[in-house]
Amino acid sequence: MTFYGPDIYTEAVADPDTLANLGPLAALAGRWEGTKGRDEHPVADGTGRDVFVEHYDLQPIDPQTNGPQLLYGLRYHTHIVRPGEVETFHDQVGYWLWEPAASAVTLTLGIPRGQVLLASGPAQADATDFELTAEVGSEVHGILSNPFLDHAFRTLSYRIHVTVNGDGTWSYEEEGVLQIPGQDEPFRHVDRNTLTQVALPVPNPLARGASTDDSLGIGGRRGELA
User: 72 lies in a domain?
Assistant: First the structure.
């Protein structure tokens, strides 16, 4: 844990422009699409495999402070379907957070099947790949599930590895290690995808309010791709 000193009340001074202060998360800001996702999940007779299409929206939020702790972040929503289908295959919301003083990235994750987690990992501001982890039972970077999931598909650990690619795309591989009744070994539930940007991010509210030069058209230029 980063030591911020004895004063835990005085708030850090933040730059209003979140997009300029996202560190390794800067490359993730915007709206993205991935059409070649791969999923490996548990089924009664072994491993089920699916391909999926993903729409991933990550928009900057105003800087957040916990006293001296300062966080810049992206609010996200990812929506996943099987190719050619309308029904939701997976839906997820949360925040990606960058803590400059700690050189750390944190992910909050919530899904509508009754599960949440907080994962974190080290990263430098200019990093093009980083990995976050969470473990069940941890009081800081942990995993909570509803009673059925905790019994039938208990998530022991979670890992996500992000890679920013040279062509402007970014990729992830995430793994949930599941304990399933009747199975001797934990099951590794893996998802991976590569995402291509379809729209640039919209500046956070504080940055929009601080802008005085409307002639630049910053919001419109960042909000759509040429």
Answer: yes
Please classify residue 81 by burial: count the beta carbons closer than 10 Å to its beta carbon, then call 0-12 exposed, 13-18 middle and 19+ buried.
middle
> Is 3 contained in some domain?
no
What is the rounded distance in angstroms from the CA atom of residue 151 to the CA atom of residue 180?
8
The structure tokens listed for 181 are 């009744």
Contact call for residues 189 and 165 (beta carbons, < 8 A): no
pLDDT tens profile 34-80: 999 999 999 999 999 999 999 999 999 999 999 999 999 999 999 99
CATH number at residue 144: 2.40.128.20
Total domains present in the chain = 1
| Among 94, 165, 102, 106, CA closest to 132 | 106
- Residue-range definition of the domain harbouring residue 106: 18-223
pTM greater than 0.85:
yes
Mean pLDDT of the chain: 93
CB proximity list for 121: less than 8 A, separation 6 or greater:
104, 105, 130, 131, 132, 133
Distance CA 202, CA 224 (A): 9
pLDDT class of 220 with cuts at 50, 70, 90: very low
| Residue 13 is assigned to a structural domain of this protein | no
The pLDDT of residue 214 is: 47
